[in-house]
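Before a colleague's protein record goes any further, I have to sign it off. My question to you is simply how this chain folds and whether the tokens agree. I do not need a full report, just your reasoning and any doubts. This is what I was given:
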Amino acid sequence: MREAGFSGTGSTSLIFVSIPRNPTSGVSWRVVLMRVTGVILVILLIILTCSIAGALLPTAQAQRRAFLRIHVIDQNALNYENVTIEVWKVVLVDSGKTDVEGLWVTRLDGDGRAYEVRAFNGQTMSRDVTIVATDVFVEFSLVRSAPAPVLVVSRVEFLPPKVIAGDRFEAQIEITNIGSLRAATSFLTFVELPSSIAILETGTAFNLGALEINERMNLTPKFLLDRSASRGSYLLRYELTCASETGYSYKSEGAFGMLVGGVPEVKINDVIVDPSTLTRGADGILTLELTNVGTDKAVNLTVRMYNADILTSTISYAGEIKPAEYVDLEFGIHVDKEEKLGVHALNVSLTYADRDGNSYGESKLYEIEVVPPQSLVPTYDILLGVLSSALLIVMFYSLRRLGAI
């Protein structure tokens, strides 16, 4: 065995290391040293590899990113600035506004990732884009929003409140400028009016004049509803047009509705008496033919007969009758053997209502004549005819005997 020690002169020292030797060991110290050195080299190699990978990772990520370029134009194909752009991928990824050239640019992860791009200036447009490895260009076209007059119909009332067929009525229309600019000129024009509604004015366009911001004005056009108009809802369509001080024109469309109530009108078309000639002791039937010439159904239609001594019944219930519908009502007739002869005036009274509960009625007089029964005693004209015929026969046979004929 060697022992470690120090020797030397001055500042120089020598170190002696005593390395034991084990003659019985199978592994020498050189082998142990080589193994330790190998382990250290492997560790250093791993550290170096990780360092290189970390240095190259940003470059690889940069290669997977690409630019998304957005361009926005207006309705005149001019660059549209200050338009808000948003990029979404479930959540908001990036946002901004277009510059004076209508451009906005961002850098996004690629590798086939899909994004939703939105552009809005009061109106919104969106596009789905996929970023791979190359730059993507997307263009939007939006209507440029600028200060302008905006006219709306803010209120409509009808007079009378309930309009029925054949009525004249007026609509009280309130128009308001809710825009951010004065309307130098403005018009309301009715378009596509129902055929049963006519305007009692010259033409269908109404000059509203100038309207300041938030100013209201009232228009009262007058209309006529045709008598044949059926019950229901009607739509009156209109256009509002206006122009700003700079001459730009604007147009909006709209419509408002109205309810039309119908009116039932039941008439007696015909009165039929069978038999047509009534005598004392006769029986028969009187038939009333009724029709609804109105524009709404009649309900609870009831017919009553007054001064009707020769009728077996004086009341009949018809119920409901629709427009243009017919119904027949029958009343029995019995003329007493002591009934006075001559004309009998029947007072026919109709009562009915509309579906809103309004009542209607009508009365008319009809004459029915009772005549005496035909006599079996020959009248003077009949006797004269018989005698004349007998005389001619006697003269014929007398002349034949005398050989005159």
Observations:
- Residues 1-25, 58-63 have pLDDT under 50 and may be disordered.
- The first helix runs from residue 29 to 63.
- The radius of gyration is 55 Å.
